[in-house]
Write a structure and sequence with these properties.
- The protein is mainly α.
- It has one domain.
- Helix content is 82%, strand content 0%.
- It has helices at residues 2-33, 39-60, 72-98, 101-108, 111-123, 129-133, 135-147, 154-177, 187-209, 213-223, 226-251, 254-276, 282-305.
- Helix 1 (2-33) runs antiparallel to helix 11 (226-251), helix 2 crosses helix 11 and helix 7 packs antiparallel against helix 13.
- The radius of gyration is 19 Å and the shape is globular.
- The mean pLDDT is 89.
Length: 306
């Protein structure tokens, strides 16, 4: 039984890695290499798939018990989280138009820095001095990587920083808004309610900011039907990332997920360089390695302070 359980966990982690890195690389391919320059519409496709597949997984397949929204206040809290989530995903997708995946992941690794900043600003929560000290190599590594990045693009860099900050803000705000026992939702139920709200936010944004995107996509589909399959597969993969994230956490622990997440970033960097062959300097790799080391030290410091 232990062997079966171990193989099951390894399979889950492999599925999580594959879907996570896969959606990242496919986003990059569509937005940069393929020339589908509509990151807001792409995000809306992701959220539409997450809405439908979340409902199928919870209401039909009964993967987890359905949790209901208990009050109007709770609904507005979830809507606020959804808006922050939209900002994070859209900014991240926009950054992929301009930056290689390797550099995108280097910036994304600074999430703990922004989490610590927002936690202090919004809850006045102080960490041990050693925990703050570990954030120095996290930020220093990105500064080094930025200075030596051959494909550096200022707007793409700012969008990636915004995405990373929004991702950290969501985790802090989620802890504040849904802290009471009556309001807590597991990640699958939270996605079930956040995704449709995100579609409502993204629909007017894509119509106004990405003019005639539906018509252009249909025209592209007539010329090359593969774009339809790319979008369907990519959107389904976006949901699968959330599903496998939940399952890995359930069958291991949040700490294990954090450690695996650090390693995932390094794997994504190597795979993206092999696929897209974007130039990377030795100094840039050293900077990214310093950031990953800082994140690992931060995780250890957090664990010891508890």
């Amino acid at each position: 039984m232990k062997t079966t359980s171990r193989f099951f966990t390894i399979g889950l982690v492999t599925a999580w890695y594959s879907s996570n890195i896969g959606v990242l690389l496919l986003n990059k391919y569509l937005l940069s290499n393929y020339g589908f320059k509509y990151p807001i519409f792409l995000t809306m496709c992701h959220m539409t798939a997450c809405s439908l597949l979340s409902y199928i997984a919870i209401a039909w397949m009964k993967m987890v018990p359905m949790q209901t929204i208990r009050s109007r206040v709770q609904f507005f809290k979830i809507a606020a989280l959804s808006l922050i989530f939209c900002a994070s995903v859209v900014s991240g997708n926009i950054s992929l138009k301009y930056l290689p995946v390797s550099f995108n992941q280097a910036i994304g690794a600074t999430t703990p820095f922004f989490t610590a900043v927002f936690a202090y600003l919004m809850t006045f929560k102080r960490e041990a001095w050693l925990t703050y000290a570990t954030l120095v190599p996290v930020v220093t590594g990105v500064i080094i990587a930025s200075g030596s990045e051959p494909s550096f693009h200022l707007f793409g860099f700012l969008m990636c920083v915004a995405a990373t900050a929004a991702r950290a803000l969501k985790s802090v705000v989620q802890g504040i808004l849904l802290s009471s026992e009556g309001e807590k939702l597991n990640s699958m139920n939270l996605l079930l309610y956040m995704a449709p709200i995100a579609v409502v936010f993204l629909l007017p944004a894509t119509l106004f900011m990405e003019e005639n995107v539906v018509g252009i996509t249909l025209a592209l589909a007539r010329e090359d039907v593969k774009i339809v399959w790319y979008l369907l597969f990519n959107s389904s993969l976006a949901y699968f990332v959330n599903l496998t994230n939940f399952l890995v956490t359930k069958h291991t622990s949040a700490l294990t997920l954090q450690v695996l997440g650090n390693a995932k970033g390094a794997v994504a960097v190597v795979v993206s360089i092999l696929i897209f062959k974007n130039p990377v300097s030795i100094t840039g790799m050293l900077g990214y390695s310093l950031t990953v080391l800082g994140v690992i030290l931060y995780s250890e410091a957090k664990k010891r302070s508890k």
